[in-house]
Amino acid sequence: MKSRIRILVYLAVIAVVAMLCFYPLPYYITKPGMAEELAPIIKVEDGYHEKGTFMLTTVRMGRATPLSYGLAKIQDFHEIFPTKQILQQGESDEDYSTRQLHMMDTSKNAAISVAYEAAGKSVSYLNKGVYVTYVVENMPAHGKLHVGDVVTKVDGEKIQTAEDLINYVSTKKAGDSVSIYVKRDGKESKHTLKVKAFPDEPKRVGLGIALETNQELKVKPDIHIDTEKIGGPSAGLMFSLEIYNQLVKEDMTKGHLVAGTGTINDKGEVGPIGGISQKIVAADKEGAEIFFAPNEKGAAGSNYREAVKTAKKIDSDMKIVPVDSFSDAVTYLEKLKP
């Protein structure tokens, strides 16, 4: 009898522990990630080497469990977000991951373009259809097209850009049929969809998909960037600096450990990111001496201002440098003493 009670207690304890550790809550937890050296990730053909290091910084994020939720409440630099602040309406965890990886690819292309043009190298683009970034619930594409699909043709005509598809569908009336050809996992399929008015904009019709032109970047010399496990656009600035440093003879690091964060577009403009405090903690832990932070043109609540406060809070010796553009960062590095 006692042995049976012990077994039942043991099983109950296992069930409670499993619930605390694995039961998913409708929240996400973010916390400091790591600062990772970029040179092993980015390889420009016959590129120059550096004495110092450029580092990207990351934030770790995962679905909350009762245990992680409780710990986040008492630990510094752990933040809790309701799922609706992370996922778009109707978006699954898988869709979110796919969207983040595509945002990384877009950011990577912008970083390559900015760095190569700054170094006076050849850059060109090849349009390869239209990438689906979001599917609206209760619209024609829902359940048929997925995030990550690439639209190649509409009604038999090739599609080169997102604008091509948007303009074509806008000429249709509610109820008209459109044949969409998409590539998914290397296979092409055809879907016939009926154009529908948007519930919140009755005068506007569509299929219910958010789109982005899928472009392949052509550059010389060749470049390879291994970002298989990295999502989101926040590494754009640091990618551009590492690429540029491998393209030019002068070592921009000058022997220093340089970390940072910020999105970048094809004009070289640096944009804000989430989790700046957590990235400051990660960079400081890895011994970074300099940290580039988005300045947001001096806005009161900018990433830069938050980064300065966090560095002071953790008593970091890092120099926090505000940047609004790729050229701001390059100008700072050019004046940096070895």
UniProtKB/TrEMBL annotation:
PROSITE patterns: LON_PROTEOLYTIC, PDZ. The active site is at residues 234, 279. It is an enzyme of class 3 (hydrolase). Residues 100-186 form the PDZ domain. Its EC number is 3.4.21.53. Keywords: Hydrolase, Membrane, Protease, Serine protease, Transmembrane, Transmembrane helix. Gene3D superfamilies: 3.30.230.10. The chain crosses the membrane at residues 7-29. The keyword Transferase does not apply. It holds the Pfam family Lon_C. GO terms for biological process: protein catabolic process; proteolysis. Coiled coil: none annotated. One of its GO terms (molecular function) is serine-type endopeptidase activity. InterPro entries: Lon_proteolytic (IPR008269), Lon_Prtase (IPR027065), PDZ (IPR001478), PDZ_sf (IPR036034), Ribosomal_Su5_D2-typ_SF (IPR020568), Ribsml_uS5_D2-typ_fold_subgr (IPR014721). Residues 228-336 form the Lon proteolytic domain. It catalyses: Hydrolysis of proteins in presence of ATP. Belongs to the peptidase S16 family. This is endopeptidase La. It comes from Priestia megaterium (strain ATCC 14581 / DSM 32 / CCUG 1817 / JCM 2506 / NBRC 15308 / NCIMB 9376 / NCTC 10342 / NRRL B-14308 / VKM B-512 / Ford 19) (Bacillus megaterium).
